[in-house]
Amino acid sequence: MRYLSPLDAAFLRMESARTPMHVGAMMTFRLPQGAPRDFLQRLLARMRKHPFMPEPFNCRLARTRWSRLAPAWEQTELDMDYHLRHSALPYPGGERELGQLVARLHSHPLDLSRPLWECHVIEGLAGDRFALYFKAHHCAIDGIGAMRMVQRWLSEDPQDPRVDGPWVVATRADPEPPRAHTGLVERLRKPIAFAGRQIRSLGDLAKALVQMSQGEDSSVRAALAVPRSLFNVPVTQQRRLGTQILSLQRIKAIAEAVGASTNDVLMAICGGAIRRYLLEQQALPEKTLLASVPVGLQRPDGTPGNAVVGFVAPLGTHIEDPRARLQLIHRVTARAKQELGAMPPDALAQFALLGLSPLILGQMTGALPKLPPLFNVVVSNVVLSKKPLYLMGAELEAMYPVSFLFDGYALNITLVGYCDRVAVGFLGCRDAIPHLQRLAVYSSDALDELERAVQAQPARARRIRTRRRH
Amino acid sequence: MRYLSPLDAAFLRMESARTPMHVGAMMTFRLPQGAPRDFLQRLLARMRKHPFMPEPFNCRLARTRWSRLAPAWEQTELDMDYHLRHSALPYPGGERELGQLVARLHSHPLDLSRPLWECHVIEGLAGDRFALYFKAHHCAIDGIGAMRMVQRWLSEDPQDPRVDGPWVVATRADPEPPRAHTGLVERLRKPIAFAGRQIRSLGDLAKALVQMSQGEDSSVRAALAVPRSLFNVPVTQQRRLGTQILSLQRIKAIAEAVGASTNDVLMAICGGAIRRYLLEQQALPEKTLLASVPVGLQRPDGTPGNAVVGFVAPLGTHIEDPRARLQLIHRVTARAKQELGAMPPDALAQFALLGLSPLILGQMTGALPKLPPLFNVVVSNVVLSKKPLYLMGAELEAMYPVSFLFDGYALNITLVGYCDRVAVGFLGCRDAIPHLQRLAVYSSDALDELERAVQAQPARARRIRTRRRH
């Protein structure tokens, strides 16, 4: 038996029918040229035989007297036919049908009496493709851990004789973590451990929250300035999923022209899409919407689990001009990164707590949708790989993380860099966000607009960039 | 707002993650000859436009201060894209893949914040067929009500110009209830209402249970003689579904030869299949397993809901000879029916309570799997139609009710008579009954055995029949 860390246990306690705390990912693959008709059957047979989920996914939650106070993992037999599932899309098998199926699968809570994962191999995707969707509980793995797990399943070499399935790759040495924020990660490691210890109980949580709301520089106090938006409502159990692919080259060209980072450009695109969506719904707040941008940290012992801090950045939804929106986002995130790097460890601990503890406390007491929002929407951004990846010779086309929602936070946006493109996934509450796919469509339009705006004023862009550099 | 009846409310209170209280049905259809390629799209489009679920499926549970004590229905908008779903089977699209998909869909609890139903149109069934699966909460409809609803969706005439979908049929006058136990039904109507009043509270339930266990003729005391079997264990959330089709003509021939009812023969077949399964598992109890046979009653006001009594009959699993097994079953059920008909109303009320209240009480207090089993397995038997039925010109091939499990009762068998066949559905707890499909296979073998045993001794069979008639 191995006890869950306090933070992992908190994710378990936050589980409710309306806010199941599992994360997932949807991947689409191209069938290899000349693939045999039973390619998926062979893939499934191999996956069934060889374990491809790391610890603790061969365990279930122990049923002890203390399991609520101090949950622990215990080894169990894996019922592979239960966890590994063969599914199919109805006609015409497009992205719409795939999004619908995955949204339905993602809306069901995991069975907490079994190992906390499911994996679906999905056939019937148009264009000689197939899809893979998995879900796993956030108490056992965080977004970065899930990303690393997927990386271990895949190979850069379609012909690699060792690579005839995820299990072979899983035995290799771990690849590099997807992002190398090494300096910052090192600085934050200790505070995260500290923060984890602080939230052992609801009482401690409440105390920390009160402390954080005192003083001039209180981030909690600042959060009172966050506008309520239609994304900040109680969520129901059902989800919608919208997807879009953007060209990384075009995004980089805009970033270069304005002297911003690709992340800034992506935030500006999200801001543009959200602005148009809210205008249409006649629900655009006067102030800018704020995004929470989580930063994942590797654990000291390398085990999967949760170690997350976040900072809050504006999406510039109050600005009509796409270029001015991008410039605002760039100014704020540049300063935030600088401040984060300069913070003393104790302040960082507070900062780390800010990212989660108000949410944890609010979720567990049911107060979250009634509190003023601490931010409006979660936007996370990771890089999967710059080279094409393969599963048993089938090329990965795109990967979309499918995350979870907190009560009062009905929209989550994930951005995944892969090869020459960025896959954008919108996960929303079915009832709060009726036409979610529009956000996906508008994000493509927002890229067009931003490109036009930047091309119209290239000279000024260069001047700003030069000034920032000196 | 309309309040749920006490019995309907009890089914709502019994809902738990491990024992969701919804019932369902799986139907397979043959595509009409020369059906257009978009037949299912057209069916879905029509179903989307026209309501096909009766009251209260256009309602959701009201969110009031008293909703736990006195739940009520309130009108709501139907989000048809949520409730009506297009699904597909993976290759090869056989009965196995269909059973797996439906078992998975049936394992998920309904979202209690929405109208309590889902309907899946399933494509990809081999042999130019498709399937339909729906689930609905038992607090809103009982098995008989569900059967009548299905009958309203279907037509006996494939060419009926009015019948281009379930909605048109839904506006016609109600057809006859599937079984015409009129004398018995009339007798039981009042006691059922009385029983419903008695179980308004847990305290009343406990009192009734104690009373019922006193006295010489106590059915509860008799229930202490029920053997524990591997079916009588705590259930987990996940289900398995096994299906089989039997020839009604062969069953009738056996019944005729022995002088028993077709229901007796079906019970003997179930007993034979269960005996072989338990022998294989080295878990056959010395005493016979007992089946609870629910009898559904029409409500006085004709609204859907729950009105169920049940009697307990032996399955003869302790007898090796198939013929002797059938004879035992016939003797006991004949006497039970006679006694049921002769009971005074007050005793009938007690009897009606026996069918459910110990289960309701046990389920709500969590004591059910710890109490000695009151019976071993539920076996219900209904007649759908003697003539072929059609949905938008597609012929119904078979219908399998997919029921629910109580804690401690991990197997449920349903038998549906339709045209010249009986569809047998086995619903089991995934963990308690590892090779459920074997029961389906063995039930076909049990019919063969019984047929051989009866053919070997036809003369003696006639003698018994004659004796019983005088």
TrEMBL record, chains A, B:
O-acyltransferase WSD1-like N-terminal domain mapped to chain residues: 4-265
| O-acyltransferase WSD1 C-terminal domain boundaries | 305-450
Q: What are the GO cellular component annotations?
A: plasma membrane
Task: State the Gene Ontology BP annotations.
Answer: biological process involved in interaction with host; glycerol metabolic process; response to hypoxia; response to nitric oxide; triglyceride biosynthetic process
Q: What is its EC number?
A: 2.3.1.20
- Report the GO molecular function annotations: diacylglycerol O-acyltransferase activity
Q: Which UniProt keywords apply?
A: Acyltransferase, Glycerol metabolism, Lipid biosynthesis, Lipid metabolism, Transferase
Designated name of the protein? diacylglycerol O-acyltransferase
Provide the top EC class: transferase
Which Pfam families does the annotation name?
WS_DGAT_C, WS_DGAT_cat
Q: Which InterPro entries match?
A: Acyl_transf_WS/DGAT, CAT-like_dom_sf, O-acyltransferase_WSD1-like, O-acyltransferase_WSD1_C, O-acyltransferase_WSD1_N
Q: Which residues form the signal peptide?
A: none
- Record bears the keyword Transferase: yes
What is this enzyme's catalytic activity, as reactions?
A: an acyl-CoA + a 1,2-diacyl-sn-glycerol = a triacyl-sn-glycerol + CoA
